[in-house]
Design goal:
This protein is mainly beta and 294 residues long. The protein contains two helices and 25 strands. The strands form seven sheets. Strands 3-2-1-25 form a four-stranded antiparallel beta sheet, with no helix packed on it. Strands 4-5-6-7 form a four-stranded antiparallel beta sheet, with no helix packed on it. A hairpin with a 2-residue loop joins strand 5 and strand 6. It is globular, with a radius of gyration of 21 Å. The two termini are 31 Å apart. 25% of the residues are buried. About 2% of the residues have low confidence.
């Protein structure tokens, strides 16, 4: 980090709660004072709506809410994609083999562990139709691809061609591989927080956008730099001149608070909270963000 952090008391963050994880497990962390409470000793556990948790035990998905515990039968746990509303997870079932491999899309409800399997209309072109992270923003469909993109509705099971807007987003490889590159927008206040990279630096920048109440005008004229860190490493390494030196890691903008007054970002395994108005930020938790509490 090239800019210097402040004390947490100077940030005046709201008492909102987020989930964050490190090697010790999953924690509930309060933004206002960094008070943390261990929720699960599994650092890969995921928070669910209604105070629940999803984690894996003995290759099975387990859903817990208080003393209630659901073990999902008939599905071996593997990499999955969670829907934006955290009410579903999707995984790709094993191939049935044959001349043209057949796959099922397995969708599991995180409310009650209900399992549904949808046969994919897939013509066998290319690799297996990886689907895990391709959820529709409304959490009502999953996308997969063979020679073109398809949209599978998880209520009806209907498969339709993806529309042009969806295809444009799905083919944006940088967005799929690096979700942190996506800006955080607050139309109510007419602001947007973006990550930017330039020679030897990466930055978090506050950008004025049109406010919801006045869509014809920007909320401000100038952009404002909030955080500056060393440059993001390239895929080919830093070169012989930096051999043995620690490579910089990317900034990762994660979350806006409900009031849009503060934001969270990560750098090198540490979670920070920043005040948008003052530009100050402070260390919050040694770990990474898993999501906001309801």
């Amino acid at each position: 980090m090239l800019t210097r952090p402040s004390g947490l008391a100077d940030i005046a963050a709201p008492p909102e709660v987020v989930f964050a994880a490190n090697a010790s497990g999953l924690y509930r962390v309060r933004l206002s004072d960094a008070d943390s409470q261990l929720v699960s000793t599994d650092p890969d556990a995921k928070p669910l709506p209604g105070g629940g948790l999803l984690h894996v035990e003995d290759k099975h998905y387990v859903i817990e809410r208080g003393k209630a515990r659901i073990v999902v039968d008939g599905v071996e746990a593997k990499n999955y994609g969670m829907s934006p509303d955290r009410k579903w997870i999707a995984i790709l079932g094993d191939s049935a083999g044959g001349e043209h491999a057949a796959y099922d899309l397995v969708v599991i409800s995180t409310a009650d562990g209900t399992v549904r399997k949808f046969p994919l209309v897939w013509n066998g072109i290319g690799n297996a139709p990886y689907v895990g992270t391709r959820w529709a923003p409304a959490s009502d469909a999953v996308f997969y691809k063979d020679d073109s993109w398809h949209r599978l509705d998880i209520v009806s099971g209907a498969v339709t061609p993806a529309d042009k807007v969806d295809v444009a987003a799905l083919d944006d490889i940088s967005a799929l591989l690096d979700r942190s590159s996506q800006p955080l927008a607050c139309p109510a206040k007419g602001i947007q927080i973006e990550q930017r990279w330039q020679r030897h630096e990466q930055r978090i920048v506050l950008v004025p956008i049109a406010a919801a109440a006045d869509p014809e005008h920007l909320s401000a004229v100038d952009e404002r730099v909030l955080v500056v860190a060393t440059d993001r490493p390239g895929p080919s390494g830093d070169g012989a001149i930096n051999l043995g030196k620690k490579r910089p890691e990317p900034l990762s903008v994660e979350l806006l608070t409900k009031s849009c007054s503060h934001y969270l970002f990560e750098l090198e395994g540490t979670l920070y909270v920043g005040n948008i108005e003052t530009g100050r930020y402070a260390r919050l938790f040694h770990g990474v963000l898993r999501g906001a509490a309801d």
